[in-house]
Amino acid sequence: MSTRILTGITTTGTPHLGNYAGAIRPAIVASRESGADSFYFLADYHALIKCDDPVRIMRSRQEIAATWLAAGLDPERVTFYRQSDIPEIPELTWLLTCVAAKGLLNRAHAYKASVDKNLEQGEEPDAGITMGLYSYPVLMAADILMFNAKKIPVGRDQIQHVEMARDIAARFNHLFGNGKDFFVLPEALIEESVSTLPGLDGRKMSKSYDNTIPLYGTAKALKEAVARIVTDSRLPGEAKDPGASHLFTLYSAFANPGQTEAFRAELVDGLGWGEAKQRLFELLDGELGEGRERYQQLIARPDELEDILLAGAAKARKTATPFLDQLRQAVGLRSFKAQGPAASGEKKKAAKAARFVSFRDDDGSFRFRLLSADGEQLLLSRSFADGKAAGAVSKRLQQGDALDLRGEGNAFGLWLDGEEVATSPAFADAQARDNALEAVRQALQPAA
Ligand code: TRP
User: Fold this and answer.
1) C-alpha–C-alpha distance, residues 66 and 109, integer Å
2) Does the pLDDT at position 79 exceed 90?
3) Final residue before a domain boundary, out of 253, 276, 299
């Protein structure tokens, strides 16, 4: 059995080494496991919430797409697409918005943090807060539920959003599922073993600290960043403390255990920091060099990138289009054609339970029968000289015209305009007759 894994990457900024070690590399490894059915996508609608600079949005989408492919993501094996290429996602967002409790969204951390900041600064609570930010978790729920993903690898700050997706899914199932669950309830997957890399200054590597190491920049840029890693002031020949050195932590995030141990021993033996940085640069350059080349090729050919992503979207929509159709049906957004006249809800049920069958008798006259749902004869009409007359009567009966049923022993007759137009067979007893009478009433009663 395969497990559907899904995660989105918000397309703001350029991925750095910390993103690579913390998210990209583990996701690609997970996608190669047998039984993994991975959906990875560029959350570019989410990016619009944080950024109103079209050029940055555009560039970031390309860079992130190229980064994932260069890092080894196989678009044949996984479903890799842009959120904004799946029109079913914003449609589903609206269906979910209509069942999501406002109180639930009031509690979202990101929204609450913005409100708190406003209050601290003496502003109105909602100053500068868009509906995009407020509804962010509903869009994310649609991303997840659209594909009925089970496992959602995310950072800790996103756990609450996955829980909200569960809540919203459960509510939709309850309201519209009719005993069948449309949505699988998703679970956040937190990779404990995945490292958060330290940045140049030892704090968590993050763009907001301006302490990042570029991922697929030039070798020169990589070298320059490594040179800026902060170390203590011990001189060459002095013993270093690997446990206290984030340079060592960075090294071990990319080295195999043998390399790590050798590097540790050298540091303890007094390896100079300049030498140590050269070792780290060589290690990173070795790990990233190949990807860097692929990255440059992909960035140079945006048309190819576009085709890969459009193929991914087509693959994703094979699931999304029919599923959204089911969901639209479930909430009542149905074609008028398939449904028949709007007022005939009750009658439609009845018509399903019993049906008229017309036929030509041996003597050439026209008659019809009313059969119960399981094919038992309830009524047989009198003979009509022509098919039109027989049809007109059965049509009037179907419309619920003047239902006049009269018992005659263990049988009954049906009267229209003072004339008996059909009779039932003789039933075995009064009970069977009454059951049949009830079935006829059900079948022919006028719409409520
Ligand atoms: N909100 C996520 C983040 O900022 C990105 C994201 C959007 C996402 N939709 C998703 C993650 C669906 C997982 C599943 O990291």
Assistant:
1) 31
2) yes
3) 299
- Are residue 267 and residue 242 in the same domain, yes or no? yes
Residue whose CA is at the smallest distance from ligand 1 atom 7: 8
Write the pLDDT tens digit of every residue in 218-243: 999 999 999 999 999 999 999 999 99
Buried b (16+ CB within 10 A) or exposed e, 35-56: ebbbbbbbbbbbbbbebeeeee
Same domain, 52 and 96: yes
The number of residues in the chain equals: 448
Write the pLDDT tens digit of every residue in 257-284: 999 999 999 999 999 999 999 999 999 9
Give the strands of the sheet with 404-408, arranged side by side: 354-360, 366-372, 377-381, 419-423, 411-416, 404-408
Q: The whole model's pTM is what? A: 0.74
Query: Which of 73, 99, 129 lies closest to 309 in space, CA to CA?
Result: 73
Residues 38 and 88 in one domain: yes
Our mutation pick for probing the ligand 1 site, out of 4, 6, 9, counting the most ligand atoms within 8 A of Cβ, is: 9
User: Could you tell me which residues are beta bridge partners of residue 355?
Assistant: 371
Number of domains in the chain: 3
The parent domain of residue 267 ranges over: 216-299
